[in-house]
Amino acid sequence: MPPFSTVRPANSIRALLLASTAVLFASPMPGHATDVDEDIVVDGVAQPYPDDLNIGASAEGSLTIINGGSVSNANGFIGRNPGSTGVVTVTGTGSSWTNSMNLLVGAFGGNGTLTVSDSGSVSSGFVFIGLDSGSTGVATVTGTGSSWTNSSNLFVGVSGNGTLTVSDGGSVSNDNGLIGSVGSGVTGVVTVTGTGSSWANSGLLAVGNGGNGTLTVADGGSVSNTSGSISRNSGSTGVVTVTGAGSSWTSSGDLQVGRDGNGTLTATDKGVVEAGSFSVAVNAGSTGTINIGAASGEDAQAAGALQGADGAVAVIEFGAGDGTIVLNHTETDYEFDATVSGDGLFKQEAGNTHLTGDWSGFTGTGEISGGMLSIDTDFRGSLSVLSGGTLAGEGSIDGDADFDAGSTLLVDLDADDILDVSGTVTIDEDAHVAFAGSRTLDFELGISTTIMTAGEIDGEFDSVIEDLLFLDIALAYTPTTIDLTPERNGLAFSDVTDTRTQAAIADAVESLDWGNPLYDEFLFMNNRDQVIEGTIWLSGEAHASIQTSAIQSAGMVRDIITWRLRSSLAVDNADVVSMDSMTGNLAQLAYAGDEGTPAGVDGTTTGSIGTASGHAVWSKAYGAMGKTLGSGESHTTERSTGGLLTGVEIGYGSDWRLGGFLGYSHTQTNVGELESKSGMDSFTAGLYAARRYEALRLMYGAAVSVNEIGTERNVRFSSIDETLTADYRSATVQAFGEVGYALTNQNGFLIEPFAGAALVYQYTSGFTETGGASALTGAWASRMLPVTTLGLRSTFDLGRLYGGTGVSLASSVAWNHTFGDITPATTMTFGSTNTSFTVPGNAAARDVGLVGVGLNFAVTPDMPITIDYTGAFAPDQEDHALSAGVNARF
């Protein structure tokens, strides 16, 4: 049996320990113990010892148990006598060491080391690590499945120095645990670290029982016990740190922080300490400190937490000693919700803390020297706000409150945000009031709001630190109250903007007046960057930019029709393959000649239209994507389009071709920087005609497109976060024409200079967004844009080289110029207000260079197929298009 199995006061423990060890652990009679002063390896076999086993009895000895080997004995000693050194390693699954009685690691002046790893196991009764003065014991249990199971108590640092490390999933269990057991010069250190690592005490755990004890629980480790004590007896020092997410120390009963000695408990970096109750500085002469984050005066750290049994609110009671709670953390919104009673000191040093919970039994004092403490409960005690400290909240202080020079009272303009002090409020010079600038308000401009009541107010705050652009804050005092009055100053919202559009939007917001969420948001802005950001998000720029997308969609239709007309005018019953250089979006996909060679390749120009007496049905599918960079007040716009045009044409007389067409396309426009997107479904109908005079070609057309538009945009600035949508229509009407002349047509090669012109009219209906206070109402808009194109195209019949393959190659280059006001604009208001503002959108480039290439495949003489690429390029614009089509002649 172990010498004792209950924890007693330090003097009793020491006396009993000395008596017990003198009888039980003296040098045995010959034949009663096995001394090992050499290296022994037990590899995969069982090795029993009938009596005690001394590893390092008088010199150096080691025992290694591996590969499922096992050793058993009565008492076990590692480093038994002065000057001896013993080392035991138990490693590997199934490897074990069984001590039917007790195990001493470092005894009677010897040095001992025990390592249990890789699922090895050790079992024993009573355990001493560092038993006597001059002895040192070190024990390590590491790795998942590694265990040390003890049927009695475990003492770390009894009269010598002891260290226990449990890591990486290892486990230790015992009855009572003592760290730093006996003697003021004794040091015991225990570290439990790593997910799954555990130390389970079925009874008491004392850290610093009579000596110096340190316990660290880190990185997911856990320690448990019934009752706990940090610095249990006079003259002892105990330090416990619980740090890291998942790390925990659980005491099902009371946890004493400084019973008769000096105890410190620190919960940091999401570490959790749970106890049925916390007793701080229990007896007179003791010192107990609980730190959240870091100790007083040290660099602030992330906060840990205290909680009661099973996650309940922690209950903390200050005793007759010197007890302190320190909050020195880095959190921006930390709630300290414990129930606190007794006479102690509460210190706020760093971080933002909300004090809740029940403080009705607290009779001590509070200090704020850094960070912010919000009193959101009934704080029973006096409070001092020191230089660098900030007090806030809407609770009460049942005592006096002092504001030292350099301290701050933080307030919101909320009718419920009143701090009530039952005693005297003393305000030193150079103390300040700071305004939090809450957007959830319950006040009126020009109307006073009480921010503090007191039994008596002595002194005044030096100034109000409000850091607001558009509000001035004034304070007024009575003998028992402090009132705050917000007033609008003379700075207009638009005075701090950069551009005309930003100013117009800011003026529109200011016209909304008090009570509107947008107005209130701007009212409490404290720098010009916030104002500018707000106007940009509110602009609704995407509604203007969608007009450019509609113009470009109409240009694609125009390109297809002009190329359809060129192919219809193929001379001498020949087909022409060429690229559309009008806008750089598409190439021609339909042909109406009767032969597989380019127009006029035989050198003749008869003046007749090769297909004037025939008819054709054609269809063309196309897709395009492009980007226009932001410039001025607009932002980068990305767009993509896909569509289909289908037409029918007939020959009229010997010189004319007449046709009609229908089409559909979908265009997606995104302004990524403003989280805005729009979808446009376009339905198109039109007519066209063409006539040729020998090598001269004349083409005419007209089209109408009706566009169904749906928009969605986010508005995200300050506290505004809204998603707005709208549905409306626009229409595009255009008339266009082109003239071209074939200069050469020899050896299967044709060069044709051409010139085109178009007149485009665009109309966009009004709209009203839904989704929040930022919703806009837009007015209708219209504009007229003349467009010209000059270019050169070429066509080459590859059949001349490869024996009539029916394949032709086309290319083109051109210059596209747009006249008039190319920048789209939309005039809008917020809701039903009369103050409007006009926002420019992203404009297409005025001058664009166009290039294109394409192939024509004559599947049959009456059914050619085309595939084309076109690119449009400008300094701030880039578009790419692919198209494919088929033509059937009959």
UniProtKB/TrEMBL annotation:
Signal peptide: 1-33
Keywords annotated in UniProt: Signal
Stored SMART domains: Autotransporter
The keyword Nucleotide-binding is annotated on this UniProt entry: no
Source organism, top-level taxon: Bacteria
Residues in Autotransporter domain copies: 610-890
Pfam families according to UniProt: Autotransporter
InterPro entries for the chain: Autotransporte_beta (IPR005546), Autotransporte_beta_dom_sf (IPR036709), T5SS_PEPC_rpt (IPR030895)
Gene3D superfamilies noted in UniProt: Autotransporter beta-domain
Protein name: Autotransporter domain-containing protein
Organism: Pseudohoeflea suaedae
